[in-house]
Design brief:
Elements: H1 10-26, H2 31-55, H3 89-112
Helix pairs in contact: 2-3
Length: 114
């Protein structure tokens, strides 16, 4: 029988649900505000991701990988899952940092506007 595969970040989803349940138990009048703020943070993260994709359509981080990442990997333990194209490691790192900064700035902008 196949082993059950949990979705990515399932533990974080479970932790968030437990924290929201605890908040509702301790202070139910604040639950709506917390849900609203949580929804805004998620919307800001999604918006930041799409802003990065719109501003840099030809410089996506996965474009610097040597192989198509969506087909999966079968590397042995201790090996990298996806190799970055030779001489593009710094560009790959810069693209990853750029995306993280844009998403983080978008989240920060939305949350400071609350």
């Amino acid at each position: 029988m196949a082993e059950a595969v949990w979705p990515r970040l399932f533990s974080w989803i479970l932790l968030s649900a437990l924290l929201f349940a605890g908040l509702y138990f301790v202070s139910p009048q604040q639950a709506a505000v917390a849900y609203y703020k949580f929804a805004l943070v998620i919307a800001a993260a999604i918006a930041g991701y799409w802003i990065d994709r719109a501003l840099f359509p030809y410089a996506r981080p996965d474009g610097y990988l040597a192989d198509f990442w969506q087909k999966g990997s079968d590397e042995p333990v201790g090996q990298v899952d996806f190799v970055v194209v030779r001489d593009y490691k710094r560009v790959f790192a810069a693209a990853m940092l750029r995306r993280a900064i844009i998403v983080g700035a978008t989240i920060l902008g939305v949350t400071l506007g609350l």
